[in-house]
């Protein structure tokens, strides 16, 4: 399902996605309220969600959709001048984000990735986002959340810190001198122990508890 207040954007995305086998665009919404109503009725697997829309913004719409359609996966569409909203959207449960000027092949890949239950968290974009918007992230640890990390081993804590920095599994493996298969096992263990759905939620938690902090802006 597509949610964007610009008909041209929706039309372009629909044209790209419906040209590929296995993807059906089941509906389009021009504002957040319509997106929530459509999602309730259509139960889409994936929602591509704009941030700024009339009636209801993309963040509020994401929160409501995921509460009422738990199986849906939401990908936030953003331009970098709107990124201050993206972290809130990830906290609301979005499965990732991508830039509106994404190439057609990347758009198709993004839909497949989140439909399969994975998180769309491009390492380079994640680093830029967290660095630029340090001001909107928590300044320190939340004492009440720290016990949530108690079940993690030291190695798993290291993995969580690096995931929060936006490192890919290949980069994690190189940094920790492990195989990618071992890294995937550690990441899965972290998610399971903390009751997290995906890497996006792991990044949010790491910043909320102060385990990771963005670099100072230059």
Question: What does this entry look like structurally?
Answer:
The chain has 218 residues and is of the alpha/beta class. The chain has 2 domains: 2-120, Response regulator (Rossmann fold, 3-Layer(aba) Sandwich), CATH 3.40.50.2300; 136-208, Arc Repressor Mutant, subunit A. It is built from 10 helices and 5 strands. It has helices at 7-18, 32-42, 58-68, 86-91, 104-115, 123-132, 154-164, 169-176, 180-194, 199-208; strands at residues 2-3, 28-29, 46-50, 73-78, 96-99. It has a 5-stranded parallel sheet, with helices on both faces. Strand 1 (2-3), helix 1 and strand 2 (28-29) form a beta-alpha-beta unit. Helix 2 runs parallel beside helix 3 and helix 8 crosses helix 9. It is globular and about 50 Å long. 35% of the residues are buried. Residues 139-147 have low confidence and may be disordered.
Number of domains: 2
CATH fold assignment of the largest domain: Rossmann fold
CATH structural class of the largest domain: Alpha Beta
Q: Strand portion, in percent?
A: 5-15%
Corresponding CATH architecture of the largest domain: 3-Layer(aba) Sandwich
